[in-house]
Predict the structure.
Amino acid sequence: MMVTEVFSPHKLISYEKVPTQIFASAAEASLAAATEIAALVKSKQEKGEYAVLGLATGSTPKRVYAELVRMHREEGLSFRNVISFNLDEYYPIASDALQSYHHFMAENLFRHIDILPENCFIPNGATTQELVKMACEEYEEKINEFGGIDFQLLGIGRNGHIGFNEPGSHSSSVTRLITLDQMTRSDATRDFGGPAHVPRKAITMGVGTIMKAKRIVLLAWGENKAGIVKQAIEGPVMEFVPASYLQGHNNVSFVLDESAASELTRKKTPWLTDTVLWSQQLIKKAVTHLALTVGKPILKLTNNDYNENGLSDLLALYGQAYDINIEVFNWLQHTITGWPGGKPAADDTNRPERAEPARKRVLIFSPHPDDDIISMGGTFQRLVDQGHDVHVAYQTSGNIAVADDEAFRFIEFVREYNEKFGIESPKAEQVYNDALAFLQVKKNGEKDIPALRYVKGLIRRGEAKNTCRYVGVPMERVHFLDLPFYETGTIDKKPIGAEDIALIAALIEVVQPHQVYAAGDLADPHGTHKVCLDGIFAAMDSLKNKPFMKDCWLWLYKGAWAEWDIDLIEMAVPMSPDQVLKKRNGIFKHQSQKDGVVFQGTDSREFWQRAEDRNRTTAELYNKLGLAEYEAMEAFVRWKV
Ligand code: F6R
């Protein structure tokens, strides 16, 4: 049997220098990757040979491994003939540390399949300094002894690294000790529970080692990889983007989901790579892109601007620039409204929301206890001020994002309060003692004891209630769902389950909203926001035959990290300078999330700063395109269920 290579050969699309396959979702792409690996393993079995796999860790390949485990359990796929070499390991690190790649591989793959432990090779992060060089040489030799790697799975870092070959790595580098880049370390902060705990070094296979593999598949998901993926696929080969070296491999595929592919020329400006069907959406995309590229407001674009920027097709369709300009300008104009719940008694033909009913029932879903105010605080306030019945549902407890000392402060508070007022509470005393004892021995990233988790959730609950009081939502319209999928106590969450969906559906059914607002982070395949959104989609689907659902519109806002592309925005709600300040003070209610939150990531700005920068940028974009100048704007996309 021939090994089926699911992804190649393809014809190269113009601008792309490496075969690239785009899937609708990370799940489908992972399935295709797992299918190719399984076919290789089986074909080698038939020939009585080893299959030598090069394996990656990180969030990207998890679903591939889950699918291989499923194939083993349900289809009897055996891994007895598999030899595996992992790309890398932190240095120094103990093999049994929760963050070690030894632990990762055992948890995600090895302990669920029948691969022989002696066939699994991972660089040893506990090797002494003196022996590292020799251990690296031995690792290279081992790979060669087995005849080299048949199939190498890769992820890509946001800085373009493959393995831990950071920018600057040489094309012929071999397995070695390397100093981790700042971006890599801050991306690992979440796993290690703070920047100071992330190792400074790692052992990694070299670029040269990877390039010797007979077949390479690089996976990338999510919009935070889109920029670097474009550079690796369309940019020049250079040492500052190590993944670009792969352009020189003769049997490589980049496998992407839609979000990771979103910056590629064929997606961003498809009219430059192909003939396109000019839908309203695409015209909006092309014209806003053109205006921003040439730095002119839409109404000042000329025939020449269209002709010189690959849009002569579109020009031919309309005849002259003026007609396209005016049409697109009006489309954008109609997205702007100070009445997010609809303007009562007004003609709503060209407004984003219906005028009737004048007083709407609104249900805002907030994945964590602060997304409502961070991402749509201005709109939230307007909806309340304009007399709608606004409910807020906090989907998760958000407990893992509270610092230990913050939680301990509250536990101590209760104890001292009790002491002062002579309240005897052996239970409170016990919580205090347990928390104190646990925190003294807690390992980085270790799951908290239940009492501590509960206190952390309570802190966030209190902050969310405070925000609601500040905005003017009565407590009976504030709902805490504490969805079970989130309650693992660690960063890794369970997938959304029937219990979660039922909780969401029950609330929608009680409120019977005319408007639902939800965090629309479609692009984040691992994050809590996406899981929360999947839960809402599933709940709404289960209710679709209920009569009230006919009048229920779903508006999506984006989380704290990104904004909708300007051409996608269907409702833009302007904010005055005073409204921006009011929102800032609402965000300040979330005290546990201030001054360097537990999962800071690479962006050192606090949430209120991110929100303001983003809302200001949206307003500036509208203004650059020639529309009115506002201080800030919040943006929404309507999801047609
Ligand atoms: C992991 C590795 C890294 C990751 C990359 C992406 O073994 O070598 O190159 O593939 O950092 O990480 P995730 O998938 O977590 O975004």
Observations:
- The chain has a mean pLDDT of 94.
- The CA atoms of residues 411 and 432 lie 6 Å apart.
- Residues 56-60, 87-88, 155-157, 161-164 surround fructose -6-phosphate (CB under 6 Å).
- The longest helix spans residues 450-471.
